[in-house]
Amino acid sequence: MKLSILLEQIYIENDGESTNLQIDKKMTEKTLEDTFSVSDRGLEYIKQELERLNKKAGKIGVKPLTLKVVGKKEEKLGDGDIKVTHEVKIEGDSPIIDGYEFIANVEHTNEGNIINISPNSSVKSLPNEFRHAGATCDHCHTKRDRNNTFVLKDTKTGEFKRVGRNCLKNFMPDVDPKAIIGFAMMLEKALNICVGGEDMDDGDGGGGGGERGAFSKYYDASGFLIYICAAYLLSGKYISGAKAKQSGEFGDNPLMSTAQYAKTLKFTTDAGLRDEYNRIYPRAEELAKKVEEWKDTVDWDALEAQKPELANYFQNMRVIAKSSAIQYKNAGYHASLLAMYLREQGQKEKDIQNKASAANKTYIGQIGEKIQFVGKIVKMRGFSTQYGQGMIYIFNDIDNGNEVIWFSSSDVGNAEGDSVKVKGTVKAHQVSKFNQSPQTVITRAKIEQA
User: Fold this and answer.
1) Upper half-sphere CA count for residue 281 (Cβ side, 13 Å)
2) Could you give the count of Cα atoms lying within 13 Å of 214 in the half-sphere of its Cβ?
3) Which of 119, 220, 314, 355 has its CA 20 to 30 A from that of 39?
4) pLDDT (tens digit per residue) in 289-314
5) Helix/strand/coil for 444
6) Among 427, 420, 450, 435, which residue's Cα sits nearest to residue 365?
């Protein structure tokens, strides 16, 4: 089953809640040209995440981004403590590719454009026509629902060009767009890291667990994902926010969503619950690592092309997947990444089982040969043609499990699960598109009770 279908199922189960992802207004107001004020904890967070981000720079052929501390302020608090604030900036060299300098990546959102301007570029302030423009591409001259447009500058003429992600290859036919797209993603993540780091206090980090920590809006995505995985492992199942809400409204035993359980684990003062978390931690950390690796391989553009009606949903999941710092109010959408991973892995395991089962099956008889067997009706459904209504029957040969399919012109009066005697003529041999098993197609069949 395609990942787009799996995600659609998760979207439906969550009652469409993932359409309401909230983007911090700061993301649309600040750029990497700005200075960020961060606490000690925020500074360490940005350093750590930037180091992780820069590991990808060499792989895509661009120079790494650097963090520069440009100032430091100390403020005495009423309790005698001292609050330290660091003023930091991101620096880096804009890549020049095929005669064009990369100036900015513009993310188009419902909250406005997020401007990921390249640090130290030759353009210090992006013109308003680009800052507030819609998702128009100067190459194809069409306006449509795009997530990103890239602002490039001709190094010879100084002319600006705004190019959509999907038009890069046509705009620069001799250039692999990997470096441009990769650098744009680095800028997206760097801005997210800085905005998130600016809203991380020196307390425990948000939503509870300490007087100062209660004011933090953001958490470290990688660290919190371990709590999400622990919540799933301890409860034995993934519970969406919509399902938890429904259980509270209509059930006697209300459920706690996986995201809320993760927050509880993070900030609990209960020694027993903390012991449970410590016990499950190694397994949770291993699962979180697998989800981290998986989310970076998802092609959200391809999924959007497959299911354009879910474009907003895929865009929200794209934002969550690439974010290093996530607001606590969006933790439910973060947890849904785990649901996507689990659903896809479950489908993969099912496919493996189907293939293993198919390896033990074979075709029955030769084409044109008459055969008979005792089979169980495992599936039946109606269909319409220009000649009228018909039925499809799929049988499992009780003796060896081989599959037989029959297209009947009428309903013979049996039900799924019935065991019947079947006589028919082999019409064709084919492979099932559902479970990859060999299927023997018969015609002119006669059905009797077994």
Assistant:
1) 11
2) 4
3) 119
4) 999 999 989 988 788 888 877 777 78
5) strand
6) 427
Asked if 52 and 189 touch (Cβ cutoff 8 Å), the reply is no
**What is residue 236's three-state secondary structure?**
coil
Structure tokens at 162: 């705004």
Buried (b) or exposed (e) across 340-351, using 16+ Cβ within 10 A? bbbbbeeeeeee
Q: What's the mean pLDDT when you consider all of the chain?
A: 84
Tokens, residue 31: 């750029």
Single-letter amino acid, residue 1: M
41: left (phi over 0), alpha (psi -120 to 50) or beta: alpha
Q: Locate tokens 């990942």: which residue?
A: 3
On whether the CB atoms of residues 120 and 92 are closer than 8 A, the answer is yes
- DSSP-derived letter for residue 390 is E
Residue 371 pairs in a beta bridge with: 424
Residues 184 and 61 sit within 8 Å (Cβ to Cβ): no
Return the closest-CA partner of residue 314 out of 330, 337, 342.
337
The band of 69, judged by pLDDT with boundaries at 50, 70 and 90, is very high
Token pair of 70, please? 């440009």
Residue spans of alpha helices (H) in 257-325:
258-267, 271-295, 300-306, 311-322
Integer Cα distance of 90 and 47 in angstroms: 11
Alpha-carbon gap, residue 370 to 444, rounded angstroms: 10
pTM flag (> 0.90)? no
Count CB-CB contacts under 10 A for residue 299. 10
Alpha-carbon span 257 to 244, nearest angstrom = 5
Strands 36-38 and 388-397: unpaired
User: Tokens 């006589």 map to which residue?
Assistant: 423
Task: Return the structure tokens found at 439.
Answer: 């299927």
- Count the Cβ atoms, other than its own, within 10 Å of residue 37: 13
Q: What share of the chain is helix, strand, coil (3-state, %, to 5)?
A: 40, 25, 30
* Closest to 225 in 3D by CA, of 267, 178, 288, 313: 288
pLDDT in tens, 215-273: 578 999 999 999 999 999 999 889 888 888 877 655 566 789 999 999 999 999 999 99
In tens, the pLDDT along 395-425 reads 998 888 899 999 998 888 888 889 999 999 9
Q: Where are the domains of the chain?
A: 1-20+206-359, 96-172, 370-449
Q: Which of 180, 186, 199 is nearest to 65 (CA)?
A: 186
* Angle value at C-alpha 170, between 166 and 172, nearest 5 degrees: 110
CA angle 95, 100, 104 (to 5 degrees): 60
